[in-house]
Design goal:
Helix content: 25-40%
Strand order of the largest sheet: 4-3-7-1-2-6-5
Distance between the termini: 23 Å
CATH architecture of the largest domain: 3-Layer(aba) Sandwich
Radius of gyration: 19 Å
Number of helices: 6
CATH superfamily of the largest domain: Nucleotide-binding domain of ferredoxin-NADP reductase (FNR) module
Number of strands: 12
CATH topology of the largest domain: Rossmann fold
Bound molecules: flavin-adenine dinucleotide
Order of helices and strands: EEEEEEHEEHEEHEHEHH
Strand content: 25-35%
Length: 272
């Protein structure tokens, strides 16, 4: 669904209070300090902030606010320790007293009124948002979680009032096959998906083109990009053709989702 671009400027200084092991490759960092006093939660469970890390050169990446407790003045972010990348490395070595800066918060999870079911699809990076979604949903909802993590020890089960069924897949390809072949539950529902960017593109295409699901009934987002450095190199070589596809769609008066289709198609054509 189309939403205004989020405000990404650093607005709040957050001081690391403690670090907790969630699973083998997931670390919860709890932030606090007076810099968080003015933090305004969006209350959306896939609430995202841009975290500005105190590194040289400067580095900033999107993360989910796993928990925000205004009375305690605490904010949790769960970091996947994927082994490379400035954010993951900072989280691995962070000590109490270390500081980051956070943008204001925004989110996308907006089911259309009354629904019977939710299907939540994620890899490791999307699990913090799924945890927060499941903690908030009502008891009368049927929820399916379809997920994969590179390390099976990172498969999480979350507290929820709803009836939740988990399907864990070994990798992104089997997750894509599962999502594009499994029937959706009966009734009215909402699909939320946060996975690697190319997989996300293919899942969105299936929901939109094969199943004709309206944009109001789904949110599909790429949370990270496999082999990003090589992808950026290949993207730079064809970016004029991607830009042209986007420009043509905009000149033709297409809406946000149709422009996104045109860009996605151009990426597929270019092997991106
Ligand atoms: C809205 C939103 C919410 C997000 N919430 C969370 C969250 O709560 N927790 C979380 O851990 N991540 C979350 N992410 C994903 C996170 O922003 C990316 O994983 C980010 O790329 C990590 O930055 P980095 O500096 O560690 O690596 P980068 O500098 O971005 O990338 C360096 C290398 O690491 C690889 N890489 C990056 N991320 C991953 C990964 N997850 N698994 C394997 N390889 C990877 C890249 O392919 C690249 O080769 C979220 C993303 C979005 C868009």
């Amino acid at each position: 669904m189309s939403t205004p671009p989020p405000d990404e400027a650093p607005r709040h200084e957050a001081t690391l209070l403690r670090s907790t092991v969630v699973t083998a490759n997931l670390r919860r960092l709890t932030f606090g300090g007076s810099g968080l006093h003015g933090f305004a939660s969006s209350s959306l469970p896939d609430e995202r902030v841009l975290v500005h890390f105190p590194t040289e050169p400067p580095h900033a990446r999107s993360y989910t606010v796993r928990r925000y407790d205004p009375s305690a003045g605490e904010l949790d972010i769960d970091f996947v320790l994927h082994g490379h990348g400035g954010a993951a490395q900072w989280a691995t070595g962070a000590r109490p007293g270390d500081r980051v800066r956070l943008s204001s918060a925004s989110g996308w999870f907006r089911p259309p009124g009354e629904i019977d079911w939710l299907v939540l699809i994620a890899d490791h990076a999307g699990l913090p948002a799924i945890g927060r979604i499941l903690e908030q949903v009502p008891h009368n909802l049927e929820v399916r979680v379809v997920g994969h993590t590179a390390d099976p020890r990172d498969r999480l089960r979350f507290t929820s009032k709803a009836r939740v069924a988990y399907t864990w897949l070994p990798d992104a390809d089997t997750l894509l096959t599962e999502v594009t072949t499994a029937a959706l539950p009966a009734g009215i529902g909402y699909l939320w998906c946060a996975v690697e960017a190319r997989t996300a593109r293919r899942i969105r295409s299936h929901f939109r083109r094969t199943l004709s699901i309206p944009a109001t009934h789904m949110h599909v987002m790429g949370y990270w990009r496999e082999d990003k450095e090589e992808w950026e190199r290949r993207y730079a070589a064809v970016s004029d053709r991607i830009d042209a596809a986007m420009g043509d769609a905009m000149i033709a008066g297409k809406d946000f989702e149709a422009v996104r289709d045109a860009v996605d198609d151009a990426m597929e054509r270019e092997g991106l």
